[in-house]
Amino acid sequence: MSVGTRPGLTRIVRQIPRVAVAAVAALVLSACGGGDDKSDAKPSGQESAKSAAFPVTVEHKYGSTTIESEPKKVVTLGLSDQDAVLALGVKPVGSVDWFKEQPYGKWPWAKDLWGAKPPQIVGERDEYNMEKIAALKPDLIVAQYSGMKKEQYDTLSKIAKVVAQPKGHEDYQAPWQVMTKQIGKALGKDAETAKLIAGIDARFKAVRDKHPEWKGKTVTVGEPYEPGKFSAFSPKDPKVIFLSEMGFTTSEAYRKALGKENIADLSSERFDVMEADRTVWLGTPETEKVMKADPLYKKTKVHQEKRDLFLPYDSPDIGAALSFNTVLSIPYAIDQVVPMLEAIK
Questions:
Q1: Is residue 100 within 8 Å of 126, Cβ to Cβ?
Q2: Ramachandran region, residue 138 (left: φ > 0; alpha: ψ -120 to 50; beta: rest)
Q3: Single pTM value for the model
Q4: 143-185 pLDDT tens trace
């Protein structure tokens, strides 16, 4: 991972090409036998017995989806959706690749749940391989932490039931609780989902109770990606939400600078945007070195007073854990980040 070749795990909504939906629609239909045939299938034996939780209807950005029976084969298309599905006892048969990070590869919070059998990689970020998805014959497709377009949703709906992004939220800005509840409802596991969320809420409350001095302190989160340039993340981005749930908040100036954008690309001349009680940077040892050598950054108050914190993506995977911000990664992130924040006086 270098400054020039890997802009970072979290830089997810730059310029995502639109999928050629029209070109694959016919292939998809032929691969899954057409949109109507599935509803006429008549499973027998144990498979025909519906769980008491079903049918369920899940509302989302593109309408609502009714799931008639317990999903057996799930494909996740959101960048971190697989975590909640795994936590609820279901191993996705297909998942997307997030900046070449295999979703089953190394993350310590999920590796054991994946086991030895990896999912099929069916796309990268918001570019989906419709043929691969159709070939898996899923009965549920989940896309919560995603930028799925309406035409992609329409095409995927010819393959299986699709639960798209939560309605009422910008793409990539829905709270982790909302996305987890959507996934849990689609899987017919509301009770298990509520327990998972309650457990995470308890972890955050314990941190707030231990550190009441953090309440109301301002925080900013950014990522340097090349000399003289950095990204700032929305107050609704998972990384900022993670810190907010420990008591921190964002300033009006920071919120105004981000607006509705999930990521704002800025130059060194705008380090004023990042001034806060705590400034958190994600990246690599190389990007940290470049940042600390920047003459303009050296002049910032937060750096001069040593209130900035540099978190790595790897070894340990702290930046990745904050970026995922799921029911699986949050406990790991809390264990890693809290001691670092405590060290800042």
A1: no
A2: beta
A3: 0.84
A4: 999 999 999 999 999 999 999 999 999 999 999 999 999 999 9
